[in-house]
Specification:
heterodimer, A: mainly alpha, 13 helices, B: 13 helices, 71% helix
Chain lengths: 311, 268
Amino acid sequence: MKPASSPAVRTIRRKKWIGRNDLMGFAFVSPLVAGILAFAVYPMVSALYLSFQQTSGASLAGKWVGLSNYNYVFNDPIFWKSLYNTFYMGVLSVVFGIFVSFVLASMINSLKGTRSKNLFKGIYFLPNVVSAVASTLLFSFLFFPTNQGLLNFVLGLFHIPPVGWFTDPKFSRISIVLMSMWGALGYNTIIFIAGLQSVPRDLYEAAEVDGANGLRKWRHITIPYMRPIFVFMIVLGTIGSMKRFTDVWLIGGTAGNPGGTLLTSVLYIYRNAFLAGQMGLATAASYLLFLVILIMTVLMLKLNRKKDSFD
Amino acid sequence: MLMALLVAGSIVMIVPLVWMLSTSFDWSARLEIGFPPRFWPEEPSLKNYQAAFTNVPMLKYIFNSLVVGAGVIVVSVISALLSGYALSKIRFRGSNLVLVMALSTIMIPFEMTMIPQFLLFSKLHLTDSYVAFYLPALNYAFGTFLAKAFFDQLPSSLREAGVIDGAHEFTVFGKIYFPLCTPVVATLVILLFLGVWNDLLWPLLVLKSASKFTIQLGLAMFTYNSGINRFPSIIMAATMVSLVPVILVYLFLQRYIIESIALTGIKQ
């Protein structure tokens, strides 16, 4: 900026600047702000309003019924079943997914050559670009309930009788977890590798001086140092798994077959809103789901802060 | 030992795709999956692809997805760049409020707002139209943060010099800063393309006529209606076609994609 000669001139110029700035700033953020207001704030408010209404069909003209939608959802065993199924698959995929991808990331990160590192990153990440629809179609044949399915064929080589992966209620949820792990593994691994590379080298060097071996360094330096990334991944994974819809809808339809084991919360919301036309009921359920996600996220972040000792 | 484990894992990751590729060329698997499983088609032919293209208007769906993707990308990138620039370089009154608003709404899951959004578009008679994709694309707070972080690294002196010389803010943005944005635009375009191409739920809610289906919706409806376990090799051929664009993008831009995932940590 050109130096202003006197303080008076400077203040005048600055005042003018602020006015111009404000106007320009508003103009530049207006697309985003319009988007947020119309497609985030308005829907949240409208959903809250709708959740106190009884509606039929897609028309918004409903009548005020107070808390009765929430009451209904709370006493609907199907809602609880859907929440249970969602949690069941969510916990398994977060726990297994993070464990396996962290081990994988540690293995890839310990490779010497950059080229082999990049090669494995590329291979493990590939399924991540495959859409949920495509991987569900692929796995419906891969997990075919007879020996024709590739997985059952391989098991047959070890004399294990064919498993009805997507048709047996005992296995259906595990199969979904396995399938989504195939898709998500590479994504988690990439983030873990980025985290592993941020661990300061001098920590390892100090540990080596004290005579620590590879596994102990991993246990006592790497894992504690990576804790924020673990928390981030757990939060992200939990939120993601609470939103499960596409794969279970394609496999089990809106009934969540087999035996209702694949009925998830979003499927519950979807079928109440778009099959039964109960928009009010569905938004009440979606608010409850949102609260569950919010509470879990806050709890996990709190837990992380409390134990924050490694810095 | 380490290498052996990694290679074994890689095989597990790749085998499903290879199996799908080979089955998609195997005419003998059109009614039932072949037994024993094979990785080379027993009856190699392109007939599955022919059948897929005649039963499912794949080209139409792909074209539709490209149209939707292009629109969403243009709207989202413009919204993200403009707001990111304003929040980083024009420190205007209320910019903190906008930041807080963007931060607090970014965590709202789409599933939470999909019903009111659907009702909003049906009230406006905009369902079954791609406007229902383009308008919500304005709300891309994640892209705003990415763009803001990018602009934060660029020097502010460029703007100050331009403004003092009397240049309009849009000129400064368009002539000085925008040409420097290639890396962040590339990241946004890749993430948005993969997101739009692979999305199913919103198209399922708003698109009614089959001629407007996106590729995922078309593929899903075809198998949903004909039974998910029927016509293995034809379904696999159709699925392979739906994968071609993303696999191509992945092959050419693999390094960018992996870098932007590692950088951002959040996939849209």
